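Hallway conversation turned thread

IA: we were arguing at lunch whether anyone had actually written out NADH-quinone oxidoreductase subunit L end to end. Turns out nobody had. So, for the record, here is the sequence (521 residues) and right after it the structure tokens. Reply here if something looks off.
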Amino acid sequence: MDIAPLIPFAASAVDAVTKRGAAAVVAAAVVIALSGLGDPLLDLLNFVFLLTALYSLWYVDDVERRGWYWAWLDAFYGSMLLFLTSSNWLWILAGWGGLDAASWALILTYRDDEELGLVGDGARGKFLQWLWRPSASALRAIATVELGTVALAVGLAAAAAAYGPNIGLWRDLPPAIAALILIAAFVKSAQIPFTDWLMTAMSAPTPVSALLHSATMVAAGPILLVRLHGPLAHYWPYALAVGLATAVYGGLTALWQREPKVLLAASTASYLGLATAFSLTDPAGATALLIAHGFAKAALFMAVGESIHRHGTRLPGSHGAVAKAAMALSLATLLGLTPAGAVAKSLLPDWELPFSFLTAGYVGRLLLGTSTERAWSPLSAVALASAALAFAAPATAPSPLWLLALAGLALYKAPPLKPMERRLYLPELFAAVGGGLLAAARAVGSLDSRIDRALLSAGSLWRALAGAAAVADKAVDDALHLKLVGAVRRASAKLSEIGVEVYLYAAGAAALVAFVAFILI
């Protein structure tokens, strides 16, 4: 295994104690020096993390749980490095799972009573309230993405048993294994129907969103498909259908979101939908799209975050001039008008133009739908630096065709559309399904209790025999139907309130050491 992924985990231990973030900056610089340049996806990860760490030095200076934040941010980086640089399926799975754990923890950075950690307008729906606190957002995220992780673990293990541990040597995968890996990629990259957890993950601080949406976590889904495009080549229609459906849904949803971070989250699902759609038929094009989107999306989140940080609200009505310059440059990249953007667009079919039209619309809401201030800060300067990285790509002349997408800027004045603002009511649907399942579980438990009581009211001999079984049965019922769900909810809420970062990190580090020792032995 490459030594580079271990460096961020070492930095995590330092930052957990010092709470300064200096180790994160040093770790990124060291990894860049060791890795060199030339691998586009690795370059994206390294430079976006370096900028995110620098940005966080100012952004989280007044955050109460800084040790927690920095420790898990470093672990986030290390997990993505492990996933990206490994060919052994076990290390890939370890990195994938590490991303799950780190994203869950980072969503819990703010406490439940902090306004910046909320998502939603608080309105009461038929089946839920449109307001998610960090504990609820974290639970929602981990409950969703772990479905994909379990599917990936089974799929990779089965493929490794057939073809060996190195994924680069795998051949055509059978349908059952392919289905598990595809589902894992769809869940991770928030593809339909697994999209909405990404919206409520905006409970995390903005730098986390900048990193998660550009170079880690959700990007791992299409990257996995790109790396396995050979063994999965026959299944391209599924990736194409799910990816395009998500691209349409995410782009339209973004147009009608009031919260800037939720708008950008929906747009991430849209762009990753395009990358997913092309991942098995045009891996080079999908990779180029991920690169262009990564630098632009990091800059957009940082630009929005500067206003959120300065105004102390998640609904800023204005942005500084430098932040808007970063937004405009990011839009140019997403439309194919900068070198990185032009490379991506040159590899994509012309019928992708309507998606760029939507891009101009929702970024236009940030650019043209808000007022402009003269204020600036180091945060907006870092955002502009991220957007400028699009010029580090080989010089490529943009196609005049993509200039047509600028007409989409007119969409920023689109009138309110409640179904799209409510994300087609998919959260309501899932809440209703969840409530139905809970009601069914309670009904089964109630029926089982009636049976227990009937048995206990039988004759003395039968009652003696049935008593022990009924007590054991009731204990299992209570644990599965009520206590398990309640315990997970309480754990998420508790961790959002107390500073246990050092202790939790120590347990995680011990587990990692034990895992590494087991693999090496």
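OS: looked through it. The beta strands are 318-320, 371-373.
IA: good, adding that to the notes. The radius of gyration is 24 Å.
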